[in-house]
Design brief:
The chain is of the alpha+beta class and 141 residues long. The chain has one helix and ten strands. The protein is 25% helix and 44% strand. A hairpin with a 2-residue loop joins strand 5 and strand 6. The longest helix is centred in the first third of the chain and has 35 residues.
Length: 141
């Protein structure tokens, strides 16, 4: 058996250090990814829908730690989608008018109000809100 030289010893430590750093980065990435997925599941969208006259008003409030994207709203009368006679006329985010074309992004604490008008709005029984995390039904009261 021969003695190891100083150069071989230094090379071994360089390899061990590089492997250790790579493993630490991989572990941090996995932990960070898991934490972000867990926090994302704490987002919640609460809603309320009411009719008055020829208007349907849908109010949505975001809670949690991340942004919720609303991709679209579908109106239903019983089991049938309402396709005419009730159209989106205005959208406000925290009281400020915004585009009536989705998607709309809500941060925690934001309130989105959608106002639909038309003679068919009184027949709407529930609203499906399609978000970045799934679809949520809201009963019309």
């Amino acid at each position: 058996m021969g003695r190891s030289t100083r150069g071989e010893f230094n090379l071994l430590w360089i390899v061990v250090t590089v492997v250790g750093i790579v493993m630490a980065i991989v572990i941090l990435y996995l932990v960070y990814g898991g934490a972000m997925r867990s926090l994302g599941m704490t987002n919640f969208l609460s809603g309320q829908a009411t009719t008055a006259g020829d208007q349907l008003v849908v109010n949505l409030k975001a809670t949690g730690v991340g942004t919720i994207t609303i991709n679209g709203i579908t109106l239903y009368a019983g089991d049938s989608a309402v396709t005419s006679g009730c159209s989106l006329s205005s959208v406000t985010l925290n009281g400020n008018s915004i585009s009536t074309t989705p998607p709309w992004s809500l941060k925690p604490g934001d309130t989105l109000s959608l106002i639909y008008t038309g003679s068919n709005c009184t027949s709407v029984t529930y609203v499906d809100v399609s978000t970045s995390t799934g679809t949520q039904p809201i009963q019309v009261t």
